[in-house]
Amino acid sequence: MKEIKLVKVSSAPQHKMGKQALNEKLSSLRERMFALQHLFYANADKSMLIIFQGMDTSGKDSTIRHVFSCINPLGVHAYSFTEPCDREQKHDFLWRIYQQLPEKGRIQIFNRSHYEDILVPSIHQLLDKSLIERRYDAINSFEQELIDNGTIILKFYLHLSKKEQHKRLEKRKSDPLKKWKYKKSDKTEAKKWQGYMKVYERILNDCSSQVPWQIVPADDKQYRNYLVAKAIVDTLEGLKLKYPGQ
After folding, report:
1. Contact between 6 and 201 (Cβ < 8 Å)
2. How far apart are CA 246 and CA 244, in angstroms?
3. All structural domains of the chain
4. Which H or E run includes 78?
5. Residue pair 60/52 in contact by the 8 Å Cβ criterion
């Protein structure tokens, strides 16, 4: 597999479709996803884990909200991983992840994930480097275990440009609907851009053998949503599911 260099991967849309066309395609995909998710829930022989990673403002929340707005909440659950609490820190780093894994027939969405336990300690030098190295292997083994037990995993890295992030952070400071998200640490973290890119490249390259990452251009929000929805629909259609008894 060719080594991924994010600087060589475009974060801009590779299409000529207008906003209306993209929204129409997304609407059609959501209708199809609704039907396919019902089939998935009815069969209940596999589970699905959908992971979203990306820089701040890359649109993890927004993608989840727009792509899954049509889904029956009985069969889908989303969970956002933040800084580990005191109880979680007393366990192995994967302990809190295991608590949120989907049962058969269910789709679980991770807004951030176990990859934060490589990313944050690497950037902020919170752990010994040798321990962080072992976490790469631990995560690969963990994902293989899930696959062996019937979990379908989709991993999306929302690829945002530094210029677009700056633009969105400025809007976050002034937009009443987004201002609550703004933190003083956002600017500090943004200055660590190159460090984050380096760690993300390592993650994308070294944690793709079991489940390849899908790098989604995220500068254009509509195109980002469309690509994610299409990948999920394609995966569900590929299962060729039928209702039990048919």
Report:
1. yes
2. 6
3. 18-236 (3.40.50.300)
4. strand 76-80
5. yes
pLDDT of 125-165, one tens digit each? 999 999 999 999 999 999 999 999 999 999 999 999 999 99
Are 20 and 123 in contact by the 8 Å Cβ rule? The answer is: no
* Residue 67 exposure: Cα atoms within 13 Å on the Cβ side: 25
Residue 42 · residue 244 · CB < 8 Å: yes
- Three-class SS of residue 12? coil
**Rg of the chain taking only CA atoms, in angstroms:** 18
pLDDT digits (tens, 9 = 90+) for 81-118: 999 999 999 999 999 999 999 999 999 999 999 999 99
Helical H runs in the chain?
Answer: 19-43, 60-67, 86-89, 95-98, 116-124, 129-148, 162-174, 185-190, 193-206, 221-238
Residues counted in the chain: 246
As given in the structure block, the two tokens for residue 20 are 């209306």
Tell me the whole-structure pTM to 2 decimals.
0.95
* Contact call for residues 29 and 230 (beta carbons, < 8 A): yes
